[in-house]
Specification:
The chain has one helix at about 1-20, and strands spanning about 25-30, 45-55, 75-90, 90-100, 105-115, 120-125, 130-140, 140-150, 160-165, 170-175, 180-185, 190-195, 200-210. It is mainly beta. It starts with a helix and ends in a 5-residue tail after the last strand. The chain has a single domain (about 1-210), classed as Jelly Rolls (Sandwich), CATH 2.60.120.
Length: about 220
């Protein structure tokens, strides 16, 4: 009797596990498990162009404070490209900590990535803290969907927390819990993975929470 039940249930468990592992569940990575100096790909992460390594963040240098360095491991992008996870997220909350250390630097936060990260959407963090852009891209074709002319300011090598809320055809961008960009239009790409990139920038604490989970 027990053997028959196991045979019947095993295919069901395999199907459920396959669905669950392909973008249905929560994802989190603080990069603490990878040795310093490791070059991507590592873990669940894939690389489209670019060079990404595990390192420590730069020394915090805020006027009026003692400052110091952190032992938390982060990812630094040495050569621009996309570091991404290949998942099937549709509606979700995506948070990531980003440090853009220099005014000339810029970063991108990607979502609904498809076809080996050759198409999808991204939030563009403009140089000189000029603002943010929401763009759709398909290979070399880029279309700007929305733009914010205001931006949060990072100082003293402090990371800022970016939160992207994607629901059907809407995208909301929050930085340090303040909304900076809102889009309600048409999103032709309905699902995909998430990622990030930006030469010289640092990234940490990637967290994706699909709709229906408690944030």
């Amino acid at each position: 009797m027990i053997k028959k039940i196991f045979v019947i249930l095993l295919p069901i468990l395999i199907i459920f596990a396959g669905c669950f592992s392909k973008g249905v569940g929560e994802f989190y990575d603080d990069f603490s498990e990878y040795p310093v100096g490791s070059q991507a790909p590592f873990g669940d992460w894939k690389v489209k162009n670019g060079t990404f390594i595990i390192t420590y963040p730069p020394t915090v240098n805020i006027p009026g404070t003692q400052g110091g360095s952190s032992n938390n491991k982060v990812v630094q992008c040495l050569k621009d490209g996309i570091l991404y996870i290949d998942m099937n997220y549709t509606n979700f909350v995506y948070t990531i900590d980003v440090l853009v250390p220099n005014d000339l630097d810029s970063a991108k936060i990607y979502f609904r990535l498809q076809d080996n990260a050759t198409r999808g959407y991204y939030i563009y963090i403009e140089p000189f803290s000029r603002g943010y852009e929401l763009c759709e891209f398909d290979k070399n074709h880029v279309k700007k969907l929305a733009e914010s002319y205001d931006a949060a300011t990072s100082y003293g090598n402090m990371f800022l927390r970016y939160k992207i809320v994607v629901t059907n055809n809407s995208v909301d961008l929050y930085v340090q819990d303040q909304k900076y960009l809102e889009y309600n239009g048409t999103l032709s790409i309905k699902w995909g993975g998430v990622g990030f990139g930006g030469k010289g920038c640092y990234f940490d604490n990637v967290h994706v929470l699909p709709a229906g989970y408690t944030y």
